[in-house]
Amino acid sequence: MSNSHPQTVRLKELNPGDIIILAVGPTGSGKSSFVSRASGIGDDIVGHELVSKTSEIMAVKYTDEESGQDIVLVDTPGLSNTSKDDSEVLNMFTEWSRKLKKRGLVIAGILYFHRISDNRIGTNPLRALCVFGEPCGGLNAAFSKTILTLTMWDEVDEAIGDKRLAELKSITYWRVVLKFMDDVETARELVREVIRNSGGQRQGPMSNQTMVPTDRESSRLELVKNLETLAERQLAILRKIGEESRNISDSNAPALRELEREYEQLRLQMDEAWELCIYGQSQKASPSVPYSRKLRRLFPR
């Protein structure tokens, strides 16, 4: 069935009953193509992120005829690994998220796009998830609502792609791992997966469990809790960087450079926390250092 009347909308045109789905990930990972295929809106309207870091957050709304739900697909600029691009994009995310929460709107699902042709997930998704935590219902909820969406299958040998898929599914961080084959069928399957789970809170791998957690699970829960504090510090510095940048002068240039250094330190902490979260150890830390000690080093009391 075709989707009815897809159109771009502003945030103030969204309603509490809308199923809001974010497409998040690095530039060129297939976010815009997904929005185009799932909604039926033209590629020329969505664009393809050639200038991602300077583009705006764009929402496309349509009525899904299969479910009867009003769906809002949100195409977001790509994150990079540099503090300058982070500050631009994350400030944009923060403002959009703040307005979303102010209107009482809730994010139903987050699709994190990753090219299967890449060996590792290079861009840290925690930076985006921490920003969107509040309108998801908290950071734990943001984790549990996130689906790892694998793209660019035509760029890898089938055997290599299947091996990487199995490896990513084995990482307990991801609640669901699905393919996007740059077609309508898999795009709408991603939307249906969010719809199926938007009515109730399915427990994610990072959520509190009714059973007694293992030492590793307890450490991961502690990590998620402390990440919220780290994210608050990071966003506060981003706001200060934005304010200083708007009023740049010789007198406040040293203060701006100091803020940028502090932000960079926090960014590196977030990257290490991400590796602890999914791999159980940081790639930069010695494997002999106990997991709990690494947490204490990252998040001193």
Automatic annotation (TrEMBL):
Q: Which domain of life is it from?
A: Eukaryota
Domain G residue range list: 21-92
GO: which molecular function terms?
GTP binding
In this chain, the stretch annotated as Disordered covers 199-218
Q: Which CDD domains match?
A: Ras_like_GTPase (cd00882)
Q: Where is the composition biased (Polar residues)?
A: 199-212
Gene3D superfamilies, A to Z? P-loop containing nucleotide triphosphate hydrolases (3.40.50.300)
Query: Pfam families of this UniProt entry?
Result: MMR_HSR1
Name by which UniProt lists this protein: G domain-containing protein
